Amino acid sequence: MYILLVEDDEKLGFLINHKLKQEFHTVDWAKNGKEAEELIYARNYDLLILDWMIPQKSGLDLCYELRSRKIKTPALMLTARETVSDRVKGLNAGADDYLVKPFSFDELLARIQALSRRQDRSWQDKKYTLGDLDINEETHEVARNGLPLSLTRREFQLLVFLVQNAGQILSRERILDRVWGYDVEVTPNVVDATIKLLRKKVDGPFAKKMIHSIRGLGYRLGE
What is the pLDDT of residue 101? Predict the structure, then answer.
């Protein structure tokens, strides 16, 4: 999963970040509400882990704001507040789950897995259509003009990200960050190489091209 961790406690944040990466999650770590807000609007996360009491904008306020803007990314709230009224307040703000500090990392990982399963069920019918291009994220099936396309896992992830942002110009850095992960030690050249392979499959046999290079800026998917 691609996770945003929002925690201002340096020691706890470091430990959570380390544990999540050991479980092969990709993690961005923000230490205040404003930084978290900027990251959320710039990237597509699978899960938000929000500390309630963080500087500049609380995790509770952040959750309220995201839900009011129809951003449905699952959110797990971390807090030392343990009363029933506090839990109800957090859930009513839009949190999907609630974990009281101090907690065990085994429980944190179990709750993340539970949210992941819930998210997987909600995505079972997640399909994209753009012109004659059809993508089924559940079955990993891709077809253009009714013809099935065989993509590698990375090519599929890249194509899904492009179609989710169809019409937008996406820089190599943004694609690298979202598809490969923030901490992966690869250069933007790998984006160019994968785009080239993807283009051969998606555009090669067809007269109408869909993956466009925008000189000096990046790439755009569109008819």
Answer: 84
